[in-house]
Structures are given as structure tokens and as C-alpha cells.
Request: fold
Amino acid sequence: MKAMLTAMRNALLAAAMLSLPNVTATATSLKTNDSAPTQSVHPFVFHSGFWINLHHFLYEQALSRKQAAGSKEVKESVPIPVDQRTPKERQLWDAAVDYYLRNIIKRDLLFDDELVKINDQLSDSEAARDLSGSGINSDLVKVLENVAPVYRVHWWPQHDRANR
Reply:
């Protein structure tokens, strides 16, 4: 029964994600109590949460790096000129992607119960300054909080605009 409910939830999630570009074009802007930007079209409310976007972007970057492992050049899916990141920022980013390579991408974002739980916790923390009260494992919290300033400067503005 649990498997059937999970499959139904995932099917609905996939359908909602596929319709997102069409829905957001006609959406009206709203603000929630936690000041996180949202888009709404009855019966759906779409959010642009910083932490969940960072998590999904790191997942994507780790998958890209894994796929490029056989080539000499590692391409990031959303490139930025190398000179825009400082060596320290590059080091932090690479450490986060390495963590995702070792610990996260071997699991499926939609069908792994632990990643679904992390996704829900990050969604609940969308406008939080940090993840201290999120209930997420401390190693992942440390990785996300360490790399958050890099993401906020180099990718988040573009990703946030694309979510609207």
C-alpha cells in the first residue's frame, strides 16, 4: 500500500513539474508569512525556495560531473566564467559536489524515501537563514551551509528568476 501511495504521489509531482512552465505564465505573485516568494494558480502554489534549489542544483552538478568522469574536461551544466569564482569559492563548490557524488546521487530524488524526506525538509526551510532547525543530517547541513554563499552570488539570482 505504501509503495502504491508513493507511486501516486510521485506521478502527481511529475505531472505538476511538467506543467510548471504553463502554469507560472499565468500565475499571480503572493507572499507567505515567511517572506518566501511564491506563484499561485488554484489549486497549486509554487515556491522558489533557496535551499531546495541549492540541493537540486548540487545534485545536477554531481550527475554532470559523474557523466563527464571519462572526459578530460568537466563541464558544469550552468557554466560561469572561472574568473568569477575565487579559488576559495571554487574549493567550497567542488567539495560540495564531491559530497553529492559520494553520498547523494547514487539515490533517486523522487523514489528514495530519505531523499524525499530531505526534499520536504528543505522545502519547509525555504526562506530560513540556516538549516539548524531543519532536522536534516548534520553532514548535509554543513555542506549546504558552507556552499550557500557561493550559490547565492553566482547562480541563485538566475535560478530564482527562472522559477517565476
In short: Strands lie at 28-31, 37-41, 44-47. The mean pLDDT is 76. The helical segments are 2-24, 50-67, 87-103, 113-124, 138-154, 156-163.
